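Entry 14. Two folds queued back to back today. First construct below, sequence then structure tokens.
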Amino acid sequence: MSEVIKTYEEELETKEGFKKTKIGWIPSNWSLKILDELGKIFTGGTPSTTNNLYWNGSTNWFTPSEISKSGKHVYESLRKISKDGVKKSSATLMPKGTIIVCTRATIGDLAITTEESTTNQGFKSIYPHDSVDTEFLYYLIDSQKANLIRKSSGSTFLELSTTNFRRFKVAVPSLPEQQKIASILSDWDRAIENTQFLINKLQLRKKGLTQQLLTGKTRLAGFNDEWKEVKLGDITDRITKKNEELDDTVVTISAQRGFIKQEDFFNKRVASSTLSGYYLIEKGDFAYNKSYSNGYPMGAFKRLDDFDKAVVTTLYICFSVKDNIDSDFLMNYFEGGLMVKNLMKIAQEGGRAHGLLNIGLNDFFNLKLTIPSKEEQAEIAKVVNTVDDEIKNYQDYLEQLQAQKKGLMQQLLTGKIRVKL
């Protein structure tokens, strides 16, 4: 390993146009700076929450949770503070275009303000000097998230001190090169934002189709037969087969991601060392997770699609579909939230111990659905699945754009690739 490092350093030493600094090799015409040299530094604060005169004003007061979801620019906070809240507390009014950086807990999350704003004490912020491009500095700090975390300390939670933030070292090119780099990365951000917008639009379209087609409010051409009310147990068979073959593909249900391997979800294997007591399910089988989560207030139904066989906890209710039901139709019925109202009726009061809904097996399989013929089910599923395919294509494209942007940041913000001015 040392020979490899030595060879790499020797190569850089002989590479024209680079110099060695305390943060590594950088282009010879770039400068090593601390953040304090690049802009005015601000800290945040919280006005007294018991004094109403400090609140319900017109000035943004951002918290870290709002920034983690904001994107490059942040527009409006959930709570606003008043002029008195700014004047008579540790909250500091910062100019439009200030880069606010989370330096407590979610260290490194950041955004650019779009108007005069304040933050709580979970931030250190910087308003760039005229010689520094705001968007370039945003991308530069964003690329240093891991190093910001390494500079942090604390026993209860990690926090980056004001001193360490001020003295944090970065490599900075000339203003024209900053602007060119920021322009390139902004192009990728716009593509990412546009793609996410299309995904959101398609997801709304799918939700509308689900509510119309899977409830019979809108019928497809050529189908006029009356829909029938059935019990979940009429169209499914419960699975209680134990894992006697000791399959070790242990999966868990993520409400947002479906079935995933436990080690991928928890970053460790949490299953029992003896897997024979787990349920064994096969591709196409369903399982219901009684844990409630964001967007799934009454638990989540998922179908095993990515594994031929898998092992799940006996806390899940597992079942396969009978011949009188189209599997895709049922999957869309579940994902459309059409079981929520009936699940709410059978979930017993106070039955949320350990995060699990208290739902009995008999009540579960007696849940009622109103469904069309299998032929109409299949046609409805085709329409909804077409939108799903579009969403999947755009999500794949979004991941490509995000990976490309990450690679560009690593190359452009270190000077490994230089831009033409």
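Second construct, same run, same settings:
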Amino acid sequence: MTTPGVHPDSGTPYQSVTRAENPCVRAHDLALLEFAGPEPARARAFFETFGLRCNDGPDGSLLCSAEAGAPVAVIYRQAPVAAFIGPTFTVKTPQELDQLAQRAGVAAPYPQDLPGHPPGVILRDPNGVQVRVACFNDWRELPACGPAPLANRGPDRARTNSPLRPPRRPSRVLRLGHMVLGTPQWEATARFYIDTLGLIPSDVQALPDGRPAVAFMRCDRGDEPADHHTFVVARLPVLDFEHAAFEVPDLDEVGMGGEVLREQGFRRAWGVGRHILGSQIFDYWFGPDGRKFEHFADGDLFDAARPTRYHAMSTAGLAQWGPPMPQAFLRPRLGWRELGQLLRNLLTDSGFGFRELRLLARALRSKSLPD
């Protein structure tokens, strides 16, 4: 394991975020996300234009599928108030579910209220967010994407008499890749996902006082490579689903998918660019209920041996290239309920008070770049 080092702006040592030696279980992947909200028709229009296949569930919910992973990647349930219900992770065997239930002290696995009714258990993270863990017999592996388009690159002139014309259609969405959860209860939340689901911190961004502010965490698959991050915990003043990301094959799928979304009247949140931590090409869009959804391609893969690395938090550290990040991008959704939560958190010992707010503002002004 590498030593955390010190914050380049303040000289304060970083606080380490250790992996779990013996977690309750080692999740294999993020399977699906559940939302509730008052705009099912707009949700369908967005997700279909985004590139997911949408169908009506028997209970009236909207079921949205990618090409790989769980049979359904997004469930949108009609409700008077918009809410993020929670994520579902997958394990590879039913025996792992039994182990998780026993060690986490929850009810034994039973068929879940999900398409196909896979066996699973239900947990609650420190914020009260529902976390399902299920075993999918109908899990689908990534499909072949065909050969990459020929490219003319310097002296390598592979494409002659063959114009490149990507089809003008929604992106080909391969799978659900990751999600980001903002919370004022950062330490307890990060430890829950590390200790319960075995997630490994890949990269950690810290505030000037050395405390972690963002942890990019991947699934522990041993020698098998996993995405740089599958679940991210960010220190924010309110509990907030920050965004979800879906993998597409390449840059053309990112770019053309964005053109189709723009033509249909949807609003870009940020992009197109390439991240630093994770390296993926990204493009973010505002979807139903003001939530953000990302197309990404060409992300980093790490096996379990790669140690955690530490960096100063900064907006400069979010992208290698791309347009400047809009100020509104990191701003949490603030309805009346969130405003009330924000005031309570700032005025009580919630884990995110005025001190943290000042440190976060200072961090976002930093020009520090990750290694």
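Quick look at the second one. The chain has one domain: 29-139+172-364. The chain has six helices and 22 strands.
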